[in-house]
Each structure stands twice: as C-alpha cells, then as structure tokens.
Amino acid sequence: MHNSILIGSKRKSEIFENLLTNNGNFNLLGFIDPDDSTNYNYLGDFIVAMEYAQKADVFFVDRSVDALPFDLIANLVKFGKHIFFDGYRHWEFGCWEALQKYSAESGSILQFSHILHNKPLFTSAAQLFRKPRFIKIEKYCVPPKNGELSSWFFQHLFQEIDLILRTINSSLRSIHARPIFLFGTQADLLNIQLEFNNDAIAVISVGRAVEPGTFVMNIYQKDRLFSIDFSENTIKEFRTPENSAQLTLHEELSAVATGDNEIKQLVQIERSVMPFDPWKMEIRNFQENIEKHLTPISSIDNGFEVTFLVEQIIERIQRKYQEV
User: Fold this and answer.
1) Residue 196, Cβ neighbours under 10 Å: how many?
2) pLDDT tens-digit readout, 77-110
C-alpha cells in the first residue's frame, strides 16, 4: 500500500479517491491545492508541500492545476517520490532536462497519463502500423495570440507531435514551418513539415483555416492508409483489393494510382476501438512501474523529446515571422 497525496483541487481529489479505492494499492491521505492562495507565505513561496512530502511516497498531479511550482516537482523527484501526472505539463526544455537528471539519480517514476497516445483510440490504431512512410495531421483550432506561441503549441500540438515521433520512431533530419495569414494579423494556418532520417515525412496543418471540428491523423504505409478521426473516435483502413499497389499521397482517399497509371478503388474497412478503461489501466501500470522499477509507456523522456522539437519549430517561426 502506497501512501499518496493529490496535488490538485478538492473536486479532483474525490475523483482520484474513487479510482484509487477501486485499485486498492494506494492510500490517498488527502490533497493540497497550489491554486489556493492560503498555501503561500507573504513572499509568495509555496509552503505546504514539503511538509507533506514526508508523509507520502506517491503524488498524483491534477492536469487542471495552474500555479504548480516547478521547484515543488523537482524537490519531490530529488527525494525519490513517484509522480503520476494527469497529462503533460508545459515546461521549458531545461526543466525536462533537469527532471531527467533528478529521476535517474533518485529512481523516481514519473508517468504521464490521460494523453492521446495512451487512450483506446490510438492504442487500437497503433497495433496496425507497419513502417509508416507519411503522416498527415489536420486540426481545427483558434490561432495563436501574439506573444503566446509557446503556450498555444503546448495546448494544441504537443500531444500530436508526441504521436508523430513515436509512430515514425526515427531521428529528425529537417524542419520546415510557416504560418499563413489569411483573415487578419493572426496566423490562420500553421504548416509544419518534418523529415526523418528513415525518409518518412510528417505534415501538420492546424488553425482556423481548417474545417471546424476537424481533427484527423492519416498514416500512410505500403499498401495501406489508416485514417484516425479523433473527433469521431473512429479508425478507418483503406487498401487496394490486391494489397499490391503503393498508395499515392493525394488528398482523395477513395482511389489509388497503380504503376501503369490506372486508378483502382480502395477498399474501406472500419476498425474497432478496443473497449477498456484507460484510467484503470494507467493506475495499474503505475503501480507495476513503481514495484518493478519499469519505465512508463509515457515517460519524462517523451516530454523531453517533444519539447526539444517544439522549441526548434518555434525558433524557426519567430526568426522569420516576429509578429507570431
């Protein structure tokens, strides 16, 4: 039984209390809320957490917490505490780098849960991929406000880039990124192209110039196209009847060109999404990772890699387009 504390709101503590009671391996002692001003001294320092750190060996972090001091997390990791994050946190690259170092020294397990990669839709689709050659993501969202590109990236593209990196599984060769201004001074569309050393390519088109409600990830490989619709929670597979022709990279998903330039219709297959409770799975995996000293499926290394790439993309955009 692991004594545990939630870093989050009272409302979220009730949710976690129910989840952990059903698991039976975590004893939730209570919660502390960094967004509560009474937990700060007159200098603005968060004063409660380290007192509680001596009472628990596991901490659960609510994704909705806004005023979460990084020093708090860093100190918990240094003390060897295990931390379950309800989603990725918006930290700069240096923070991820520091946590990598501290966790390696202390043996802390840091697990990031409730993210796209770990949910039933993508988990089901990922079992079908075999050496993807081209990935295209289209997503509708509001444009970034001036001076807020970093937080916009974290909110709208962090998890999507995480999916790309883990699906292609190759080192990066080149980055191309360009905002497109259509309706005003804000970037209405952001186009990003990533080329990898295994010759795979990923293209991201995101912004309000995309059709509202769109959030689709298309994954092309030899003889196959998989279309993952995050808005509709569906997986579709497209393939030629013979499974012999290489898919072209056209927008149309209904036909494919063969070597003799004849057009053949694709066969569409509806793929099922595995029915499982991601919360139960994540907490069960967290317990096993702690007890067996295993690396989580979504670990600090994943956040480190995505942040490193995102900061490169942002630097390229702002170098040419200072108004973004």
Assistant:
1) 19
2) 999 999 999 999 999 999 999 999 999 999 999 9
